[in-house]
Every structure is written in C-alpha cells, then in structure tokens.
Amino acid sequence: MEAKQKKLILEDGTVFIGDGFGADADVVCELVFNTSMVGYQEIVSDPSYTDQAVVMSYPLIGNYGITDEDFESKIVAPTALIVRDYNDQPSNFRYTKTLSELLADNGIPGVTGIDTRKLVRHIRDYGSQRVLITSDNISAEEGQKIIADTPVPHDAVMRVSSKKRWYARTANPKFNVVAIDCGIKLNIVRMLNKYGCNVVVVPHDTGSDNILQMHPDGVFVSNGPGDPADVGVVTQTIKNLIGRIPIFGICLGHQLIARAYGADTYKLKFGHRGGNHPVKNMLTDKIEITSQNHSYAVDEKTIKNDKIKVSHMNLLDNTVEGIVCAEDKVMSVQYHPESAPGPKDSAYLFDQFAAFMEEDKNA
To answer: Is 251 a catalytic residue?
Structure first.
C-alpha cells in the first residue's frame, strides 16, 4: 500500500514533509529528539515519552523489528515517532512484529523521510515546541491555529500510572521495596529484583500511611512523564516519608524528591534524551556515560537544605544530575542507571540504595 504524505507543522510555523507509517492519525504534541543509536522499542514503550513526538537522530529505524520480551512497559507511550529512514523488513530472528504494526495497533502515527539532522538542529536552536502531524493539505497557518487551540495536558502521570498495586518477587529476598509508579520502566523493577528486593508497585497517589502499613525497607520513586509541578500528590507523600525510611528516586522521581526538600525545577530548552550523556560523580570524581530522558531539571540555586549534597553533575550543561542526603538515607539521580539497552556505568547506585536499607534495618 502506498504511504500517505504527512506534514509536520511546528509551533513556530516551520514545515517538514515526509511519508506516513504506523497509524494514519492527526496529532498535536510536544516535539523532542533522542540521540540513541539502538533501543527504539524501549523508547516507544517508555511511559516518560507520553504526549511527545520523538525524533530519532539515528537515521535507520525499524531494522530489527519488535520483540515481545523487550518492552519497558505495557503501553506504547509516544504520541508520534519521526525518523529519517524507516525499514519495514526486519532482520532479527527474535522479532514478532514490525515497528509500523506496533504503532498502527496503538493508534500512533509515524513519519519517515524527514531530514532528521535538520529537525534536531532546529529543536536545539529554538527549543522543544509543539507540533501538528497531519495530512499535506493543511497550511502552516491553519496548523499553527490548531496547535494554539489544543490544550496542553497536565495529567500524564495519572494516565500512565498503575491503577492498582502489583508485585514482582525474587528468590531469597533481602529487602521489601514499595515502588511509587509515576510511569515506571520494567527494567527498574528487574534491577531491584536483581539486587535482592521484593517489589510492590503502587499507584502514584498512594499515600504515605498506606505505604508504611506495607512495612517496606525502602521506597522507590519512579520515572514518568510531564512537569514535576503537576504531581504534587507524590511530592507530599515523599515529604511525609523523608527521615522515616530510605528513599531512592530516578528521573521524575529525582525531581519530586528535590521538590520535597524545597528545591525548584525548571524546563530545559530541549531536554536530555539518549544513551550518551557524560555525568560527573561529585563524590568520587568519576565520569559516567548515562542514558537520559527528561525535559525538566532541578534548580541548583534553590537547594537550600544544608543536609542535601549535589552528588552528580551533567558535563554538557552543568545541570544537577543527582542529590543525596546521607542523614535521611535519601538519594536520587536524573538519569537511568537501569538503562536498557545500556550503558551500565551507574548500576552501582542500586548497591548504594541497598546499603541505605541495610543500615536502616540495623540501626
């Protein structure tokens, strides 16, 4: 079947034209880019990409298909996927369907044939903005009006979070962990299992009293989509738990922990997305190559609590990548130490969380 021509109309009026794959649908969402060379299946199943059109900077996408075992969640998260060269004939003995079939099954449009180098540079120069993906008979002016008339959603975490608790158990467990699900990736749960944790995953609006009634050794606050200011219910839960139980947060969880300590967050010009971001561990002076996916960052100037130390910094733009409070046994990082596929430089953070839990149990 011949591909339908698709038009990308950016909020600033810039237009790109390509061919459609996946679902034939018109959408309005935020436009972001990812610099990963592999892992498109993990990207499209990462709930943190909710309400976003992801531009893949690596040119060839779809060439190894989709594999049932490699999903990071039970949902296909992005609103759209934009690539340079989509391959619909995968070469991979494990694949069970094509990327286009996956997107079509979930009502998600894809666009191929776009000059993604130019588009990525446009986002870098002018910042993330909203985009309309539509048929080629809509003018730029009409598209801009459609974008302006489309409300910006603020309920992303509520939509992707679990609606009821679920369990992930491991053999010979050392710890019991409650994971607050703001859009959790499955490899985080696997890593907690690997480090000896039985995990109870609970909806994002589960209160601190309910969490403490489960008698956990630690609490994990997950990644997730959107603005951390929209998730005050989780921030309040963290405030109520600080000093009572060890806490570990990743990505959105990091931002929410910082806000619980009184810090502010702000939106980055174009965010950090990809598996090649250098981060300095300020406590060891070691450099880690990290995988990231976020639009917001913690404002270092607003960290006023003397108990909090900045543990990690991004070497590309000097943004805060981690904080730690040894007294409260609380730690968080902006990047993904459980990243799948890779890099694996930061898996030691799960050891540190386990050490906090062990210390607390023996106190």
So the answer is: yes
